[in-house]
Amino acid sequence: MKSFLFHSFVGICFGAFVMVMVCFGIIGFGGAAELDSDLFVKNGLANMFCGWFFSVSGLIFVKEEWSLMKRTILHFFTVTFLYFVLSFVVGWIPFTIPGFLIGIGLFLLLYFMIWVSFYLYFYMEMKKLNQSMAER
Q: pTM here?
């Protein structure tokens, strides 16, 4: 429960941070003089929810009695479903076939890159731990 609350807090804060950075970018580089308050609130809440479910869904990987393949598949389908429902409802991805194809392509690319990065990081950590245990 403690881990769930911690991951929830971190995910919500990260989602809010992303929203603020996007707004700074829109104002600073996009030339927008003002923001629509309804759109700001809708996107802010959606970003916080998105940050929350990506962060909390990572707890699936703590379940060590499951294979890495099973955990990855469960995580992938969980976040994919939630992300695309949220994206279509909020309007981040247009509800068209080309919009969906571009969205799924970018999502798959980013998911793969992040998954491989985490896998390599934890693989290197495991090698370091095994090496330090062998030296004892």
A: 0.80
